[in-house]
Amino acid sequence: MSIDTIPSRPRSAADRTRRDGLQRHERRSTGRAALHEYASTIGLAALVRRAGTPLFVLDPARVAGEFERFAALLPFVRLRYALAALPHPAVIRTVASCGGGFDAVSTGELAMLAHEQIPASDAVFSHPIKRADDIVAAAAAGVRLFVADNPAEVRKFTGVNPELRLLLRLRRAADAAGHPLDGAHFGIDTEHALNLARFAASIGVRVAGFSVHVAASEPDAPAALSSMLHEALRLIDEGNARWGLGLDTIDLGGGMPAEHEGGEGVDAIAEVVRNVLAPRVPQLRVLAVLGRCIAAPAMLLATSVVGQATRDGEIWHYLDDGMHGSFAGLRGSGEVPSMFSLGEIERAGADEREPLYPCTLAGASTDGIDVIARGIPLPPLGLNDVLLCPDMGAYSLVMASNFEAVHRTRVHVLRPSRAQSKRTVSV
Ligand SMILES: Cc1ncc(COP(=O)(O)O)c(C=O)c1O
């Protein structure tokens, strides 16, 4: 049945369940076809057989493709890449070659830029809380723009370097139901933001403007971002008109969903940014920080089945990667990554009606939390069969530990010059 034949207003819970199942099935078929095409373009099967698993396959062409997509969507915005998502040298080099700057939250990340001989003068040091030594080191490395959100932090900048400027991070306190929002552990309440800017000016610390961050996972993120940007503009106007603070910069943070998470979200957010901020450019400098939307499509994970069991009637597959490794970023999120067997990707198109069975996937450790997904539909798998998870580049490798002395998953970098489609595999 095609998705067109699904009733748009299901009459019952059973109808809804059936519709959701069909949509999932449809998405999986589309994702499988896209991955089939991509895998044949890059010779994935041979690569995985040669290199073994677990293995990340990093594709610089995808980094460039996504960066260029955002540059076209937000032509007046200075794009920074959030190194926290995936600070791999190949990603750093690609972003730099596309003309992007960087967002760092530690001196370690700045050292990675230095290692690639990329000047830090265009980088933002955006951790709102820093050791005084780190500020001095970052300034010596060339960073000129920092984030702060409280008087004690602002004081750390006195006398460091007269060229440094601060962005004051604005806080999003709680949603309408009173739940704290993602990132609420940072930021100054907007009603105190101008007092903090005036305090900074009074001790000789320059403030450039304000930074905000609305997480991609938030419901109605475009509306939330719109209200934060309006608030930041209001503060800039009031600060300049009443106190002559010379504020001229807004950093709209991250939160652009990756394409596989729902590309339409990006268009809505980009529209908000264009509508609210474009009329104020060029007097206003606008920065954005891209993390997950660049890093996620950059890497695909290949992992193998190393053990199998049936428990309480469920099929369990144990993998050579897990929640203490490359899936660590999923902890507590309730998200299930897209997964395909290498076999079905090689066969894709041959038999569209290949049966799928609900499986539980567990990781490589002995820890009870090391369950990656339950009830995930997969084709029949045997020992040593390979599973492919596209769009796994963001907050994956960086979150992995070496718990139980297991090494982090290796990364194979594809040649950047390879001719191929730059689009993301959307599943
Ligand atoms: C302040 C700030 N900016 C940017 C980012 C990057 O966000 P994303 O990965 O959603 O693009 C984050 C991530 O948590 C953040 O906290």
From TrEMBL:
GO BP, one annotated term: putrescine biosynthetic process from arginine, via ornithine
UniProt keyword terms in alphabetical order: Lyase, Pyridoxal phosphate
Region of interest (Disordered), ranges: 1-30
UniProt keyword Cytoplasm present: no
InterPro entries: Ala_racemase/Decarboxylase_C, De-COase2_CS, De-COase2_N, Orn/DAP/Arg_de-COase, Orn_de-COase, PLP-binding_barrel
GO molecular function: ornithine decarboxylase activity
Orn/DAP/Arg decarboxylase 2 N-terminal domain span: 63-295
Basic and acidic residues: compositionally biased ranges: 12-24
One GO cellular component, as annotated: cytoplasm
Cofactor(s) named in the record: pyridoxal 5'-phosphate
Similarity annotation: Belongs to the Orn/Lys/Arg decarboxylase class-II family.
Protein name per the record: Ornithine decarboxylase
Naturally occurring in which organism (per UniProt): Microterricola gilva
